TrEMBL record:
One GO location term (cellular component): cytosol
One Pfam short name: Hydrolase_3
Lineage start: Bacteria, Bacillati, Bacillota, Bacilli, Lactobacillales
Gene3D superfamilies: 3.30.1240.10, HAD superfamily/HAD-like
Residue stretches spanning the membrane: none
GO molecular function, one term: magnesium ion binding
Keywords recorded for this protein, A-Z: Hydrolase
UniProt keyword Hydrolase present: yes
Protein name per Swiss-Prot or TrEMBL: Cof-like hydrolase
Length: 270
């Protein structure tokens, strides 16, 4: 029996205009009436996630944000966090300065741009629908007792390919890398992913992974999809996500989340 539904945002619950359509809202409310808890699991920070939970009528519960780095209840209280500390930030700052590419740091509230700037290339992060107007943080402020959920390099695809080619084997072993879009590379604590984030929630609500339905579309959803009792890929998902899923639903522009909810809850939760 499905007791909890984990839903990705971009490319899944949200359509191409970064909105939740009415069919999906109706279906999520139907799932809640059937007794299912709803958890949004996203690469977005909490500040860009909470409003979507509000639209769905999810008034109590949890969200997994920044690709599993931060797990919070809907009052904004952190119940789990897999962060990057000062040494991590300094490591990636030096890496990006050496390659002449800009770096952003992200926590649950803000996306920061670092000044003084050293790169001739502007960050493309602020062009994404998952972003917002950045706050400024100065390099000297990163020398203190700081922690962030993730660092982000966002550049044209060909430049980002070159950046990835410069990663050291020790970096690959030490950090978790997420390339959820061709122009976006996110660097996280090695324990940070959506599966581990949702495990924190499941510990709170006493639900087993076998009782979870997970819905997603990108590589950063794979660990969670493979571990969940029911896995659903969007029609617009990448091939490896579709190959690992139990069911492929309609696209994010065709209310695919609603289709998946009705398909499973009407069949299996009667």
């Amino acid at each position: 029996m499905i007791k909890l539904i984990s839903i990705d945002l971009d490319g899944t619950l949200l359509n191409s205009n970064s909105e939740i359509d009415q069919e999906n809202i109706k279906a999520v409310k139907y799932a809640q009436k059937k007794g299912c808890q709803i958890v949004l699991c996203t690469g977005r920070p909490y500040s860009l996630t909470k409003s979507f939970a509000d639209q769905l009528g999810v008034q109590s519960g949890y969200v997994v944000t920044n690709n599993g780095a931060n797990i919070q209840n809907l009052s904004g209280e952190t119940i789990g966090r897999f962060a990057l500390g000062r040494e991590d930030i300094q490591h990636w700052l030096s890496f990006c300065q050496r390659l002449d590419v800009p770096l952003n740091v992200v926590d649950s509230r803000h996306i920061y741009t670092i000044e003084p700037a050293w790169s001739p290339y502007p960050s493309l992060y602020y062009n994404l629908p998952t972003s917002r107007i950045p706050k400024i943080i100065h390099q000297e402020d990163l020398l203190g007792d700081v922690s962030f959920d993730k660092v982000v390099i966002c550049q044209k695809e060909e430049l980002l390919d070159k950046v990835e080619s410069q990663l050291e084997p020790s970096d690959v072993k030490t950090y978790h890398f997420v390339r959820s879009e061709p122009i976006l590379l996110e660097i996280l604590n090695p324990k940070a992913n959506k599966l581990q984030g949702l495990r924190c929630v499941l510990d709170q609500v006493q639900i087993d992974l076998s009782e979870v339905m997970a819905i997603g579309d990108q590589a950063n959803d794979l660990e969670l999809l493979k571990a969940s009792g029911v896995s659903v890929a969007m029609e617009n998902a990448i091939d490896m996500v579709k190959a690992s899923a139990d069911y492929t639903t309609a696209s994010n522009d065709q209310s695919g989340v609603a289709q998946a909810i009705y398909h499973y809850l009407e069949d299996k939760n009667k």
